[in-house]
Write a structure and sequence with these properties.
By secondary structure, the chain is an alpha+beta fold. The protein is built from 7 helices and 19 strands. Helix 2 packs across helix 3. About 40% of the residues are buried. Bound molecules: pyridoxal-5'-phosphate (PLP) and 2-OXO-4-methylpentanoic acid (COI).
Length: about 350
């Protein structure tokens, strides 16, 4: 097994960090100095290398571009109050990445190797992890099929890359979502549970229709009856109803198994609150908002963090949720998880992995 000290590093000649305007940072538009690259061929992964950030050269027949064997992960590194740099739950991303690979007929990366590449890469880029409030280093590991081949079969070669973006908030304001009853994000037996590039491409057209109506995102429903809520385009969705935390069950293979959502659930259970992971119908949510029993609705995601949802579009109606400042649970859990990430609260769950 490779140990992270064996990862070869070719440093960039000149860091671009002083060119960053932290006040006007746009999510996903700035990139750090390096990237980690690891190639798969002849049935094995070659040694990963950290190299200066730059373009990749691709053959026009690169099979990922044609047949969609492409998947990714998203996680964040934080600057703790004592100056340490830590990564939030990379072990969970390692598991999900492996499951996505299996579903897409792509070669898995051993979980320990995945974690080591992340931590070594973050150590290399540690100067990019800001201590500004609300900032983090967003990490984007991804893998794609590289066979130059026209024909449908799993590729025999792949490239795995990690790059990073210094980021602030993904949503700069409380979120407005619309219940989607016509288009479908994921069908049972499909790839909704995997973090596959095509899931996002397929969602863009319906999401654009929602954005034209003033919503940030859609709230996807099941592909059969459209009666049950699944998740949003960039985050899982959670509700507080009569004091119980409710979220759509991920037992089906249509919902991404979100790490932020899982963290919220684990904290809620630790606090002794009642959590229900079950089918959540559109009807229940609409009625609950109308009769006041649904007091909180929020998204949970790595980029989105805990994103309060303030408006819910449903057919011709736009329902208003209670004001954000009244939301006891989501405000408290958001603060607590942030405090753990920053080392302000004790990491009793063992979620922070030290990179430097
Ligand atoms: N659902 C979708 C479709 C997402 O893209 C994301 C973001 O990664 C999530 C849910 C939330 O997952 P996580 O909390 O692991 O980032
Ligand atoms: C993430 O939260 O990591 C995602 O992949 C969502 C994307 C909108 C950035």
């Amino acid at each position: 097994m490779l140990v992270s000290n064996d990862i070869k590093i070719t440093p960039t000649e000149k860091s671009r960090i002083n060119e960053i305007n932290w006040d006007t940072l746009v999510f996903g538009k700035e990139f750090t100095d390096h990237m980690l690259v690891m190639n798969y061929a002849n049935g094995t992964w070659n040694a990963p290398e950290i190299v200066p950030f730059g373009n990749l050269a691709l053959h026009p027949a690169t099979s990922a571009l044609h047949y969609g064997q492409a998947l990714f992960e998203g996680l964040k590194a934080y600057r703790q109050v004592n100056g340490d740099v830590t990564v939030f739950r990379p072990d969970m991303n390692a598991v999900r990445f492996k499951e996505s690979c299996e579903r897409m007929c792509m070669p898995v990366i051993d979980e320990e190797l995945f974690i080591q590449t992340i931590l070594k890469f973050v150590e290399t880029e540690k100067n990019w992890v800001s201590d500004r409030e609300g900032y983090a280093l967003y990490l984007r590991p991804f893998m794609f099929a590289t066979d130059p081949y026209v024909g449908i079969r799993p590729s025999e070669t792949y490239t795995f890359v990690i790059f990073a973006c210094p980021v602030g908030q993904y949503y700069s304001e409380p979120v407005r979502v619309k219940i989607e009853e016509h288009y479908t994000r994921a069908a049972a037996g499909g790839v909704g549970r995997a973090k596959v590039a095509g899931n996002y491409g397929a969602a863009m057209y319906p999401a654009k229709l929602g954005q034209n109506e003033g919503f940030h995102q859609l709230l996807w429903t099941d592909g059969v009856s459209h009666e049950y809520i699944e998740e949003s385009g960039t985050m899982n969705v959670m509700f507080v109803k009569n004091g119980t935390i409710i979220t759509p069950t991920e037992e089906s293979d249509t919902i991404l198994r979100g790490i932020t959502k899982r963290s919220v659930i684990e904290v809620a259970q630790h606090w002794g609150l009642k959590v229900e992971e079950r089918k959540v119908s559109v009807k229940e949510v609409i009625e609950g908002i109308k009769d006041g029993s649904v007091t909180e609705m929020f998204g949970a995601g790595t980029a989105a963090t805990i994103a309060p949802i303030v408006k819910l579009g449903y057919r011709d109606e736009v329902l208003e949720l209670p004001p954000v400042e009244t939301r006891e649970f989501s405000n408290k859990v958001s603060q607590y998880i942030t405090d753990i990430k920053l080392g302000k609260a004790e990491d009793i769950f063992g979620w922070n992995f030290k990179a430097s």
